[in-house]
Amino acid sequence: MAELGLEVRTGTGILRWRGNRADEVTLGWRGSYAPGDQIVLSCAAPPQMLAMCLDRGLSESVVLLTDRTFTFMIPFGDERKAYGPRAFAGERHWGYVRVLDERERESWRNLAENSHDLSLPSGSAPVLYPHAVTNVRCDNPQFLARNAIDGVFETGRHGSWPHESWGINDQRDAWLKIEFGRSVIADELRLYLRTDFPHDTWWRSALLTLSDGQQVTLRLAATGLRQTFPLGGARIAWLALSQLEKAEEHGFPGLSQIMVMGRETDPGSWSVRDPRRVEDDQADTGDTERSDAK
């Protein structure tokens, strides 16, 4: 068993609500969130594979928690645009976190989805995986790297939810890296390109790099429909997209969603990997988490 806890705290640390329980804890708080508020998840025995949904406006995600605490800042103002109008709104809030059943770990699923992923300051190590990293600087939350793994794959427009995406702001050397925090078995890559034409353009090709050293050039089409590429059951800790070839000089390319279909390497016994190890960085994808764009 693992003792789990959820707290709602103000920006100054004042406790507004708390719940603790073994293996499964719910958040059932009555009150309105204010700027600076945060939800704090605690776990007495990390690392743990968890099923997590901290708000009714977010999808459930299967995540790996590698530390004793994870803090989720409640989005306000422009930050909320990527989450949708229902997320964290109103005066009644419900969510949950539970330890993943070993039988669930055997399932074939999207290993890249994490609707609770956060953009981190340069040099900060994530404690919740999967995690999206990019070298693109970004001030607009509607185009952050985290949007590409939030589970929303609406491709027809750009901007606020449900059209949030990863945008590159016309940066020629842009890359996107998805870190799993452990070794996983990856069978299939799915890409959803943003297609708000004529505002948008698309990428003709991209270089896919896997943490095991494999590299392949992906040929892409001008469609918002799912584009699928086999990964052959590769055992990887991360993958990256780089060398993005823009199809047209005008327009802004963007990625609505990236999915990695597969399963855990060993559902009953797994070890945490550090995807930031220098010797693993065979993708030549840079050194910091910086994110922006259109």
From TrEMBL:
Residues 266-294 are annotated as: Disordered. InterPro entries: Galactose-bd-like_sf. SUPFAM superfamilies: Galactose-binding domain-like. This is Carbohydrate-binding protein. It comes from Coriobacterium glomerans (strain ATCC 49209 / DSM 20642 / JCM 10262 / PW2).
